[in-house]
Q: What sequence folds into this?
């Protein structure tokens, strides 16, 4: 057996048992990469290394990669990935850098691939657009706006394409389903440097596996996304409520889940509650949106006005402006941590979990910059069925039947990394206790959404046995040497067995 084959055999064993194999020192990998693709590498200490390495939303995700690789084409990514596999170099892939999970999109002892240079945006004549993996959603909406088109994708300007591998809640979810279900083609660089196009007709199993399977299969270089029609102007904005209005808002949030989001699929609301530790104030500030040519608020969104927001920015707007407006306040460089779980929409549980979260948040409000965010995000029966109609994904949501699911988001922000030990374990414990409460009340759904999960939540396991078995079969076909298990720490790994 040659050295190369021995390394591959070890890697395959590692893939099977979830073990890590010894990797080549990063400095060697960086030198090999520099020799293969000169001019694309930023070394530690070089002018732009620190700037590029700090371009992450959460300060917890800024690590110390051995070097940074900034490709400008799929072929360059392919050469690099082959080199990484052949030499057992560790690496990480960054899209828009908005995951709050340390190590999901960065590495301490490997090469960081940043995708900003993969910035293609090309409209096809088949109601689709090819976008490079380095895009963020604001510029994509800006690009498509003049042709009255949009994509089913992220709602906040600087968030990246990583959500096209996990799930993807969007402005159009009630009508068109999750973002993953609107990816017509993934252009994927496999472990051996082969570039494949995974779609319903070409590599269909890989296409389906990527719809929730995340970074377990390859580096995505381009996405072909289905486009949908939008009017000249979208009706949307943000509604704000203060503490005294929140009980009425809770009713509207529940009604939105089980009635308005179901019966008027052009609506979109992202109900968000925020607690500011410094001011001890709680508000609701919810992005609100209607995909129609309107000049006043439609009946389906009227309950949000009836609850009398103290501020309401609803107007005729461009999508890019809404994406920018909604992102205001989500600053870079702070400590971020998040966790999530899913329930069948339940009014009493919505109330109780938010009440208990507020009680918990009070205990930590002395921490500098402390902020708590809680969201209830519906996934309607139609959204799930859109996924089925588009070839299926691996999330395991079909069993929810005619009941609307709600993705419950819990997020914390604060200033200093030195406070993480005080807060993170207690936060995890709190959310776990809410999961148990949901279980006791019979409202829990097992699904854990990739995009909002905490680092130790069992995302892929939550998709269920059948989907895990399918994902493992696809893994054998497309990543037999376990490159994306052993060399890429990534977000959430496909478990070697069980679920
Ligand atoms: C302010 C804010 C707003 C958000 N809004 C939404 C929203 O509207 N809808 C929603 O569903 N989610 C939303 N999210 C969650 C967001 O979708 C996830 O954080 C997502 O992972 C971000 O993708 P990214 O490319 O920015 O992240 P990154 O941190 O760069 O990547 C996330 C994961 O994807 C992997 N990855 C990225 N690109 C590639 C690639 N080309 N090939 C292989 N793997 C890759 C990374 O390795 C990493 O594991 C939001 C988050 C924040 C902080």
A:
């Amino acid at each position: 057996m040659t050295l190369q084959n021995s390394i591959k055999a070890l890697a395959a064993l590692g893939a099977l048992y979830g073990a890590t194999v010894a990797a080549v020192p990063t400095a060697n990998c960086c030198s090999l990469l520099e020799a293969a693709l000169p001019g694309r590498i930023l070394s530690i200490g070089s002018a732009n290394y620190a700037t590029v390495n700090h371009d992450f939303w959460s300060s917890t995700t800024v690590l110390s990669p051995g070097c940074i690789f900034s490709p400008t084409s799929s072929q360059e990514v392919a050469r690099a990935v082959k080199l990484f596999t052949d030499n057992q170099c560790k690496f990480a892939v960054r899209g828009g850098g908005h995951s709050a999970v340390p190590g999901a999109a960065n590495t301490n002892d490997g090469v960081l691939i940043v995708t900003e240079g993969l910035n293609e945006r090309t409209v096809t004549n088949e109601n689709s657009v090819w976008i490079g993996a380095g895009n963020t959603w604001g510029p994509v909406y800006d690009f498509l706006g003049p042709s009255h088109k949009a994509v089913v994708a992220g709602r906040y300007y600087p968030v990246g394409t990583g959500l096209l591998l996990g799930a993807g809640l969007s402005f159009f979810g009630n009508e068109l389903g999750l973002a993953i279900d609107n990816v017509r083609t993934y252009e994927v660089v496999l472990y051996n440097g082969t570039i494949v196009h995974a779609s319903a007709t070409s590599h269909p199993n890989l296409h389906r596996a990527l719809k929730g399977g995340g970074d377990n299969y390859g580096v995505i270089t381009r996405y072909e996304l289905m486009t949908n029609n939008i009017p000249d102007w979208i009706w949307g904005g943000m509604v704000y409520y203060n503490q005294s209005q929140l009980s009425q808002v809770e009713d509207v949030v529940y009604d939105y889940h089980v009635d308005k989001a179901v019966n008027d699929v052009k609506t979109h609301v992202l109900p968000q509650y925020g607690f500011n530790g410094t001011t001890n104030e709680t508000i609701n500030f919810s992005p609100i949106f209607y995909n129609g040519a309107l000049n006043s608020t439609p009946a389906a969104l009227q309950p949000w006005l009836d609850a009398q927001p103290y501020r309401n920015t609803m107007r005729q707007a461009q999508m890019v402006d809404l994406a920018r407006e909604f992102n205001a306040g989500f600053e870079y460089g702070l400590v971020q941590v998040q966790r999530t779980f899913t329930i069948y929409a339940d009014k009493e549980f919505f109330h109780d979990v938010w009440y208990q979260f507020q009680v918990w948040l009070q205990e930590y409000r002395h921490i500098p910059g402390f902020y708590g965010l809680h969201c209830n995000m519906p996934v309607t029966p139609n959204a799930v069925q859109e996924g089925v109609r588009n070839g299926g994904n691996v999330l395991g949501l079909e069993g929810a039947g005619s009941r609307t699911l709600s993705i419950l988001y819990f997020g914390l922000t604060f200033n200093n990394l030195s406070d993480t030990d005080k807060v993170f374990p207690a936060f995890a414990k709190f959310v776990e206790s809410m999961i148990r409460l949901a279980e006791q009340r019979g409202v829990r759904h097992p699904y854990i959404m990739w995009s909002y999960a905490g680092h130790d939540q069992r995302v892929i396991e939550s998709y269920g046995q059948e989907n895990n078995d399918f994902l493992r079969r696809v893994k054998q076909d497309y990543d037999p040497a376990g490159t994306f298990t052993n060399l890429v720490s990534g977000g959430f790994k496909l478990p070697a067995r069980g679920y």
